[in-house]
Amino acid sequence: MALTTACNQTSKTESANSPAAANKPASTAMLDKKPGWWKETVVYQLYPRSFQDSNGDGVGDLKGIVRRLDYLKSIGVGTVWLNPIYASPNDDNGYDISDYREIMPEFGTMADFDALLKGMHARGIKLVMDLVVNHSSDEHAWFKSARASRTSPYRDYYYWWPAEKGTPPARFSTFDVKHDAWQYDAPTKSYYLHYFSKKQPDLNWNNPKLRQEVHNIMRFWLDKGIDGFRMDAFQFVAKDPSFPPIPGVTQATFTNAYNHGPRLHDYLKEINQEVLSKYNVMSVAEGAGRNTTEAMLFVDPARKELDMTYTFEGTGVGSDADTYKLTDLKRVFTHWDSAFAQKGWQAIDLGNHDQPRMVSKFGDDRPAFRAASAKLLNTFLLTMRGTPYCYNGDELGMTNSTFNGIADYRDVAARNAYQLLKQQGGDQAAFFHLLARFSRDNSRTPFQWDATANAGFTTGTPWLKVNPNYVAINQAAEEKDSSSVLNHFRQAIALRKDHPVLVHGQYQLLDAANPHIYAYTRTLGAEKVLVVLNFSSAARTWSLPNGLKPTSASWLNNYPTLKMDSQLALQPWQAVVVKLQ
Ligand code: GLC
Ligand code: CA
Fold it and tell me: Where are stretches of biased composition, namely Polar residues (predicted)?
């Protein structure tokens, strides 16, 4: 069942800088432009559709974000990654782009975008855009032309299988109602390929013209002054156009079956050489191949491809069950850390717009434990090695939503999975149970600003239901409460900024087999800190390993006190960062 993107499922296996300084606007002066700045930044992922509506149409927009820029500055994030804001018919919420150089009218105009970028830079915040080029929309001018005639100059921007050659070799689509990645198109009696929905035809990267188009699109945005790209589904772009058989692909194996096609790294090297190396920007790939060895190919600095990558294995822990094992989470994060211990760099995240809310999945979102467990998870994100990616709303401890039936869901993945279920007469109760836990709409509900109608998100009807718990969980309330999840998040960010050990320090897991406590040290030169996280809703004690001598200084604690002698007495979901001698 395609409840989430298959490319976000658990993998079962394991800059150069030549600044665009010449045309740098004066307002960027306070931006950190040191080489490697992207290692030290904290990325805030902002889902524009749900952040702030400014005109009452129920859809978040760029002017709305501008209104909230002081808030972004106040929390201390260094970089914002904006989900797609380009022109799109919104089959997959902007991941189906019909014009890469236009802003989606619902979100505003290019002037609004320019104002947003300027406003961010004026506050010392960088902006990273989503680059969605595994596929375009079927409403893109390229595809409209390509599907109209076999001799269109844009025909080879996409993959076609002429019907006279018979049925094309099976390819699995993660969003398609029938999971068939080939869609028959009558005007030219051919099938086209779509790994995602049938409104997202895959672009043909074997075609150098297409690659140049993408380079030009990247330059267009970089010349406006943006600070990098998050490269959507990029690991899927490379395909063998002869389509040799790849049998037996399912939702569970989709990612690993298709994520390492021929010439993938040639395309990345070309992008680096032609575009990225000419700007002081960051690049991050969604997905990292089948294992850590393949992930290194994306980010080994000597290869000159990308700066960092993120894997689905961490967020994928426990993705098909009601619970997860902490020992699995520890094993996965430790394994991925060790892969980049000598070179390369990774992104650290526990949630995004394709995942459930992190506190509902990895914490305990019941009222008694929600705040403590959200603080613990933020402590984790901000004390690991790698660049933290914090998803909007997680700084408040926003939770999974409650929806009543399929009509409340908006996600193409959920809706198409429901179609399939109905056709097959599947178990509805089990389906809705899974959806409630894992649907991507859980994390896409409107941002909870205050306790007024619709959480202050819109004066109209929100495009997706606001979580009813906004009355209690909202930014305005947390702002006033010094012990809120929000204020703890601010402290954790400030701590990371002040202490390079939390960014660059070596990571060492302690007590690997402990099923409730996740403990590790970070060491940089003479500086050493201990992070202890009680991943459980019960009080626990934890004995300090021999040789570890804490100072009395606790750098961060999500409870007012900490009992510590040879043992730590930890409250439910207590999370502490302690300086060691
Ligand atoms: C990525 C995006 C997801 C989208 C898919 C297709 O996984 O994060 O939201 O549906 O790519 O573009
Ligand atoms: Ca709006």
Answer: 1-14
